[in-house]
Amino acid sequence: MNAWTGTILRVNLTNGTIKKEPLDVKAARAFIGARGLAAKMLFDEVDPNIDALSPENKLFFAAGPLTGTFAPNVGRYDVVCKSPLTGAIAASNSGGSFGPELKYAGYDMIIFEGKAPAPVYLWIHNDQVELRDASALWGKEVPETTDLLRAETDEDAKVACIGPAGEKLSFIASVMNEMGRAAGRSGVGAVMGSKNLKAIAVVGTGGVSVADKDAFAAAAKDAAAKIKAHPVGGTGLKAYGTDVLVNILNSVGSLPTRNFQDGYFPTADKTGGEALAANNLLRPRGCHSCIIECGRATKVTNPKFAGEGEGPEYESAWGFGADCGIDNLDAIIKANFLCNDLGLDTISTATTIACAMDLYEAGIITLKDTGGIPLNFGNAEVMVELVKMMGNREGFGDKMADGSWRLADAYGHPEYSMSCKKQEMPAYDPRGVQGIGLHYATSNRGGCHVRGYTIAVEVLGNPVKMDQHTTEGKPDLVITFQNLTAALDSTGACLFATFGIGGDELAALLSGATGIPYSTADFMKAGERIWNLERMWNLAAGLSSNDDVLPERLLHEPIKTGPSKGEVSHLNEMLPVYYDLRGWDANGVPSAERLETLGLA
Amino acid sequence: MNSSNPSTGFSGRGVASGWQLAMKIKYFAYLRDTTHTAAEHYSQPAATIGDLLEVLCQRYGPGFSRWIRTPEGGISTIAIILINGKDIRDGAWVDTPLSPEDEICIFPPVAGG
C-alpha cells in the first residue's frame, strides 16, 4: 500500500496474544486514518456504555497516512478510547517522532484490548513485537521510564508511556511520548494505566511509500513554501512559541483569570512568550518533519523552581498563570515540567487548581479539607506543590486528580468547574470570543480549543477577520473549523500547518500520497463524516444536547474588567443555528438524511 | 510638567507625560526588538491610527515597519492593532480616529493555539 502501511497490530493484554491484521481500505479511504479511522473502529468495536476504565475499553494508537512522510509538519498520531473524564470519545493528538516511528516499523495503528494481569510494555522492532514485564518500571516517572526503556531496548527507540498519574488512574492523566510530547487530554493515560500497560517502545527501519512521487513532492514543496512564507508559520511560532498569545488574549480582554472570574489579568505580560523567550528559552524544538518549531526547550535557574525540560505552551502558561492569579513564570514552567514528568494534562491540572482556589476563597472548602494548605489565588508555591500531590494522588491532591468537575461536585458546587462535558476549558474566554464558546459547548471531546480553533479568525484575523464579540456567522465558522480539523487530524498533520495551508493543499498531499483523488470537497466531507460519527457514538454513550452547554458563570456573570468588560456568552442564540446548519434536529441528533449523505446510515 | 520630548511627542518607558494627555502605545513580540520598550506615551496629534502608524514606521524604521506594512506599503491585515482592546479590522481600519486618552496595542503577525 501507499501512505498507509496496510497493517494494524491488535494486542490482547488479557491473554497476551498479538495479531497483525490488514487495514480496511474502504474505511481508511472514508475516515483517512489516525483520529478518524480509530474513531470508526471504536464505533464498530466498543460498546459506548462500558466503564472507561474496564478491560472492555479499547485503546488505539493511530498514525495517519501522511504521518512519517517528508511533507512538512506531518508527525502526529492520536490516542483514541472512551474517556473516563467525559464519558465521550477521547482522541488526544501528539507530535514528536513516535507516530512516524510506528509507521516505519510497519504499522498504521495499535489496538490494545483487555487488561494485563501485571504491568507490561510493548516492544516493537519492525516485525518483532512482544509484550514484556514492566514491573520494574511501575511507579517511575516519565523521564526515568523513557531512559530505562531505551537502555533495555534500543537507544533510538521512541517511547510513549504513562507516569504515576496514569498508573493511579487520574482522570486527567496523559500519555507522554519522548518525554515532553503529550497526548494530553481526556484522561487517555488513565485508560492505559487501567490496562496495566506502562509503555510502548518502537523502532522502525522501513519507510512510507507514496503513490505518485512527482505529485506528492510537488504538493509537499508547495505546502512547505506556503508555511515558510507565512509570517506566523515561517517565523513567529519559532521565535515566541504559542505563549505569545498571552498578551494578545489579555489585550482583547479574553484571557480567563482566576477560574474565569474575569477576562483580564493586569500582569499577564510577565508570563507571555516575550518573557519566556527573554528569560527561559534554551532553543525552539520541532517535531518530525516540522518546519515551524513552536516547541520550547526551557530552563529555570531560580532554585525554588529549578529545572530543565519542555514547555510551556500558551494553554499551560495561562492555566498555571492567569487562571490561578499567578504571574511567576518560573513557577509556571516548573508546574509544566512536573506535569510532563508525572503524566498529567496541563490544561486540566491547572484549571482544577484554579477551581480549588476558587472553592477555597468562596469558603466552600477549608483548611480542614486541604490538610492545612491555604489555596488562595496567586500562591505560586502552593500551586506547584498541588501538581505533585495530584500526580501522586497524595492528600488533597487525591480529590483533585479526577479533574475540576468531580472536585467541585464532591463539595456540592459543580458550577465552580469551568468545564464542558466535564473536561476543563482552555485559555479563551467564551464571553469575550463568541465563536469559541459555541465550539467548546459542541466539541465532541468536551472543553477543547484545537478541534475548532475559531480564535484564528475571531482574534488573530487569520486568514480573515471576524468580530470576536458578534454571533453572526459564528455557527458556520465553527462547523467549518470542526470539519477541517477532523480531516486534518486524521491525516497526521499538525494544526499549525494551517498557518500557511488549508484544505486545498492537504487534499493534494493526501491524493499524491495515497493515489486516491481527494478533492477539497472530499476532504472536508471526510471531516464532516468523522465529526458526525463521533457525535453518534457520544449520543449512544448517553450524552445529549443537555451536555452542549457552558458553565452558568459564562452565560450570566459578565467579564468584570478590561476591554471585554460587560460581555457574556450568547451560546443559546448560536446553538440552534449550529444544529440546523449541521443537519441535526432540535435535540442535536443527526438526521437520517445527513447520515445517509455522509455514508453513515 | 510635561516629560515628553517636544520635538517628537514621545515619552518613554511607560512614564506618563504630566498634565498633557498622551496616548499609551504598547508593543509586543518582535516590535520590542526595535522600540526597546514595551510601552511609551505619545502626545502629538494623530487623527487616525493610520497617521500614528505612519509616525511609528518613520520613527523606528524598517525593523518596525517590516512587521506592520505589506510589501506594497499598506498596513498588514494580519498584524494585530487594537485601540482600547478593539481590533481596527472590525471597524474603520486605518481610518479609525484616535483620542488622546486611547491605549494602542500593536502586535506583529504572531499566533499560537
Automatic annotation (TrEMBL), chain A:
Its cofactor is tungstopterin; [4Fe-4S] cluster. GO terms for molecular function: 4 iron, 4 sulfur cluster binding; electron transfer activity; metal ion binding; oxidoreductase activity, acting on the aldehyde or oxo group of donors, iron-sulfur protein as acceptor. SUPFAM superfamilies: Aldehyde ferredoxin oxidoreductase, C-terminal domains, Aldehyde ferredoxin oxidoreductase, N-terminal domain. Keywords: 4Fe-4S, Iron, Iron-sulfur, Metal-binding, Oxidoreductase. The keyword Lipoprotein does not apply. It holds the Pfam family AFOR_N. It comes from the Bacteria. Residues 4-206 form the Aldehyde ferredoxin oxidoreductase N-terminal domain. The keyword Iron-sulfur applies. Belongs to the AOR/FOR family. This is Aldehyde:ferredoxin oxidoreductase.
